[in-house]
Structures are given as structure tokens and as C-alpha cells.
Amino acid sequence: MILSTTTRQLFSEFGYQKGIEVAKECGFDAIDIGFMRDIIENEEFSEQNYEKTCDMLLKEVKNSGLYFNQAHAPYPSMRFRNTHETAEEYNKRIKPHIVRSIKMAGILGAKQIVVHPIDATSRPDINQKELNLEFFNSLVPLCREFNIKIAIENMWKYSSEFGRIVANVCSFGRELADYFDALDERYFTVCLDVGHSSLVGQHAHEAIYELGNKRLTALHIHDNDLNNDLHTIPYFGKMDWSAIMKALADIAYKGDFTFEVLTDSFKIGRGNKELTKKYYELLALTGKELIKQFEEYKNEM
Fold it and tell me: In what order do the strands lie in the sheet with 68-72?
């Protein structure tokens, strides 16, 4: 199983070239490139410059012996509430960013790109599933052109009324399965965020079984305390990693093992590059141990 990690902290801490080098030195096989809004709105990823930047990134990963296995589009994919800008202004701006992120992911050779489903729970007049299916299907021509699949992710939201995280759109394995089954499998797949599952009251291994081998081809791996979206290293929280790895083995999961651990949540190293690199070494070691568990469970079958 391929071991990969997201780029947000790697690139912000080390820059593009050094970040890729650090990923290789720490023991990762591939990189999941994130096109979050703080990245895609940078000049190098603008409409005028993104192709040149992609050429540079491809050169760097090839020199390192790594590759880009998947990607993440900017989010949220749509808003209904006004923030520092109106929802209309935001929605007009975000769709071209999502489109460009899909183009870049395809150019970089990623197999799939995570695109968040739209949360329409604040609008009871809107059929949330119909809205999302229309949105996802609008991306199919890009999938064809750039030979990439859209990976739908399970989401949550924070309820100020209840003072805690609650279920949202595609929050449970069965809901992700329903969305996948309503779309064309040539262009869509599922990315299960195992941490998000636990936050809405479903164990990640239960969601894995509900999804099965055909639907589930991508993962966001991280741990939490079952209450907060911490995105920390496995075993630093309360999730049941033996159950998760066994479930992946039981369904004969064939996708990659991709971390979405956010080191800046804990201010790891506080700008000290050597400490940050040690954190990534521990992350890679943890990933390899979990993959070893997966292989052992497979051999027992």
C-alpha cells in the first residue's frame, strides 16, 4: 500500500522543492497536493501561471522519485451565508478555483481529487442531494479531459445551538455510498476521512464496511479525541486503529494510505524546521506500522 501525505505544512514550512525532498527523506512514497484557498489564490497558481508552476512541481517530484497520487480542491464548494463577503461573491469566485484545481491535479498526474460536497442544511427549501449531484455532474467534462476522478468526502459541521460537531452532508458511510451510486463510477469515487466519521458518531471501521471495496479508493488518515477535529497522528487520539486496519483488509481495500495530519494545529516545531522534520519522520513511521497491520490482517484471511 502506498504511503502519502498532504502538502500544506510541508510547502508552507519548507517551500516546494525542499518540502518534496523532506517527504522523500522521511519515507513517503507519494504526495497529496492541496489546493486550498490560501494556496490557489497565490500568484504562482493563478490562471496565467498555473501551468508553469505545475511543470516545476512535476520536475521536482520526478527528481525526488515521488509522485502526486491525489489532490484536494479548495473548499467550501458553495456558501449560503454571508461572511466577510457575500455568499454570491464567494460562490462566483470559488467555482473557477475548483475548476483550476482539477486541471492542475490532472496535469500533475493525480488519480483523484477530493471535492467537498455542498452543505445546504441551512436552506430547507433546497434539496441537498439534488444540488450536489448537479454540482458534481457539472465537473464530468473536466474529469474526461484531465483523466481524473472526483473523490467525495464525508463532512461535518459545528452547531452553535448544541455547542458541538454534528452530522452534515455525506457524514456517514451509507450516505457516501448513496451519492457514489447515483453518479458515474467512471468519474467519481469516495474518500473516507476516518477522523470525520468518529466526530459524527460513527466508527470509521463501520463506514469502511458500509462503503466496501468498489466505492472506497481514497483515505484521509488522522486521529482525534472523538469530539474535536484535531487532525493529529494516529495513536495520539482515541480512535480504534486496529479495527480500522482490519476493516480495510476485510474489504480488500486497494487504494493508498494518505495522511491528512495538520502539524500547524499543534504548532509543531514553532518554525523549527528540524523539529518539524522529526514530526514527519514519526508520521511516516506510524503509517508504515499501520500498513504492516493491514498486511498482517490480509494474510490471516
Answer: 216-220, 188-193, 149-153, 112-115, 68-72, 30-34, 3-6, 257-259
Identify whether the C-beta of residue 250 lies closer than 8 Å to the C-beta of residue 209: yes
Strands 149-153 and 112-115: parallel
- Is-cis flag, bond preceding 74, omega within 30? no
Pairing state between β 257-259 and 3-6: parallel
* Cα–Cα distance measured from residue 62 to residue 60, given in angstroms and rounded to the nearest whole number: 5
Which has the closest alpha carbon to 57: 104, 127, 9? 104
Q: What is the CA radius of gyration of the chain?
A: 18
Ordered domains of the chain (ranges, CATH): 3-300 (3.20.20.150)
Res. 34 pLDDT band, cuts 50 70 90: very high
- Tens digits of per-residue pLDDT, 214-265? 999 999 999 999 999 999 999 999 999 999 999 999 999 999 999 999 865 5
**Residues 78, 91: Cα–Cα separation, whole Å:** 6
What CA–CA distance (Å, rounded) separates 287 from 301? 22
- Report CA torsion sign: 199, 202, 207, 209: positive
